[in-house]
Fold this sequence. Notes:
The chain is of the alpha/beta class and 533 residues long. It has one domain (48-450): Glycosidases (TIM Barrel, Alpha-Beta Barrel). The chain is built from 18 helices and 15 strands. It has helices at residues 2-25, 49-52, 65-70, 92-102, 113-116, 127-142, 158-161, 171-186, 199-209, 223-250, 271-295, 300-312, 325-331, 360-363, 386-400, 422-440, 486-497, 513-532; strands at 42-46, 106-110, 146-152, 192-197, 253-259, 262-265, 338-341, 345-350, 366-369, 375-376, 383-384, 405-409, 446-452, 471-473, 482-484. A hairpin with a 6-residue loop joins strand 10 (375-376) and strand 11 (383-384). Helix 15 (386-400) packs parallel to helix 16 (422-440). The protein is globular and about 80 Å long. Its EC number is 3.2.1.21. The active site is at 409 (nucleophile).
Amino acid sequence: MRSKMSISLTLVFFAFLGCRTLVRCAYQDDPFYYDKFPDGFLWSTATSSYQIEGGWNSSEKGENIWDRFTHTCCHIEDNSTGDVACDSYNKIQDDVQLLKSLGVSHYRFSISWSRIMADGTNATIKSGGIDYYNRLINALKKANIEPMVTLYHWDLPQALQDIGGWENELLVGYFNEYARTCFKRFGDRVKLWLTFNEPFVVVWVGLGFGAHAPGISDRPGEAPYKAAHTIIKSHAEAWHTYDNEFRSTQKGRISITLDSDWKGPKDPNSADDKAASERAMQFKLGWFANPIFKNGDYPDVMKELIANKSAEEGRSTSRLPEFTESEKLRIKGTFDFFGLNHYTTQLITTQYRSDKKPNYGSDMDAKESQDPSWQRAGSSWLYVVPWGLRALLNWIKDNYGNPELYITENGVSDRNASLQDDHRVEFYRNYINNVLKAIKKDGCNVKGYTAWSLMDNFEWAAGYTEKFGLHYVDFSDPARPRKAKKSAEFYKQLIKDNGFNAPTSASAPTVGPRHRASSVLFMVVTLLVKFLM
Ligand code: GOI
């Protein structure tokens, strides 16, 4: 009796392990999941100021680093600029109409700092800029659409770059003043705030690699770390300003949006690849998330590796700056939710590089690659890997205590002008289905989803060559007319259904092989256990 009992328990235990392994591996081929999103799930779409507004010198707006960068040869693929872009500066009604038709509950846009403060300081507050955002916010509210506002989507006032940009700690104070002005002027109607969009891209692509404004690439092992340090402190101060001065009356919420790919192990059975994947995740997402969402400080693996390399280079201090104990306390927990932008996935292995110069890219001792079977998009970096989003959401849940999370960007590019964007429909269908699985099957605390982008726009260094829009924009027409793509119709229906309606029986897809295998295993184990009992 005793022994039968223990045999059964052992069997149950191994069955559990077996299923867990199957579930772990199953992200890839887990079949499509038909269900609804939780009630109150937030549906949104996003843009950013420099990418859509145009009006680059209207209303006493000051010059920003993207104006300077695009006006200087030859940083942009098609030599274009955001001088006019989608002309959203003059097309508030058109944009709100698109949003209304989609049926989104929220719209994520950003404020152009140099429109509000020409030189980035209180000395040059511009009423024309403030008026533009007031008109936009009021039009949204009238259409029953809630604004979700990003304070910094990469367009730094040029005057602040001229004093060193994010490498200068004075920007903590300037950003705080700018944030306070926005809370004061718009916070009666804006209840969701994001301080920074993708600080990783700001510091790495802008100040390490140099493909984005301000185009700095001479110190790729130092400038990004220094600038990240300033940005993390700036975020924390702005969060505290909201918390201390505005939260009790305005009753909104504020956080930061971090971008992360899923960086999985190339060989999931290799301990070395798993360690490399973890390092790569910590060096990209953990760099910003660890201080804010965990313990006020950089990930241990970053501190260790960069300190060691710095010592080998003969330096007396690490290239990674340190937070003081009081700064750590000030930074830790400065979030009301987790903002996440996600597009793609890479496979990671260990690689030791001996670059001539210190470089963030080699500090992590990792190399990334892609599975050749993954579908490509209009951007060379973007591989379509829907299950990667589910893996990433689970990693965030496990590392940061399952915070409330909003997906603040997700989308795909092409280089066509076609309204028949079937590949984008498939992209959204499959990525959003993985969000649903993360919520319903894995218990991830995802509260909202945002499609990038409302419309085709200025895609940074790629100019107008890569298009992410749910709506097509004709950039050769001065009126910049917008037209819905097939993906806009798809997204609209998805929002209306708040999920995926089960197909009618005739068209039901068959169960995938992995799913079948786990069902068979479960049945066999159940029968064995019954027999032995
Ligand atoms: C968001 O960034 C952003 O918030 C939106 O504003 C934006 O419109 C949207 O995404 C869509 O992009 C091949 C170092 C070519 C320098 C491979 C490393 C170019 C430059 C791989 C790595 C990649 C989403 C430009 C994150 C900008 C694309 C950030 C992803 C340029 C590359 C690179 C590469 C690299 N990034 N973006 N790039």
